[in-house]
Amino acid sequence: MKACRKCHILTTRSTCPYCGEATSEHWQGYLIVLDPNNSEIAKKMGIKMPGKYALKVR
Ligand SMILES: [Zn+2]
Q1: How far is the centre of ligand 1, averaged over its atoms, from the C-alpha of 18 (Å)?
Q2: How far, in Å, from the CA of 43 to the mean position of ligand 1?
Q3: For labeling, which of 11, 27, 33, 56 is most exposed (least CB within 10 Å)?
Q4: How far is the CA of 58 from the centre of ligand 1 (A)?
Q5: Which fold would CATH assign to domain 2-57?
Q6: Buried b / exposed e across 14-37, counting CB within 10 Å, b at 16+?
Q7: What's the pTM?
Q8: Hey, where are the domains in the chain?
Q9: What is the pLDDT of residues 17-44, one digit of tens each?
């Protein structure tokens, strides 16, 4: 899996399916967001869509 440098979503693609940014293989930790509107971490990270997100992306 690769992570988007901008929105941090995890994907198998080389570009992010949501924002079009290039993805990176260098990421650490992940977070599963089921309901972004009711998640403090999601709000902090600016996550608006449910999914799997990397915590750190280089
Ligand atoms: Zn993205």
Answers
A1: 5
A2: 16
A3: 56
A4: 13
A5: Rubrerythrin, domain 2 (2.20.28)
A6: eebeeeeeebeeebeebbebeebe
A7: 0.87
A8: 2-57
A9: 999 999 999 999 999 999 999 999 899 9
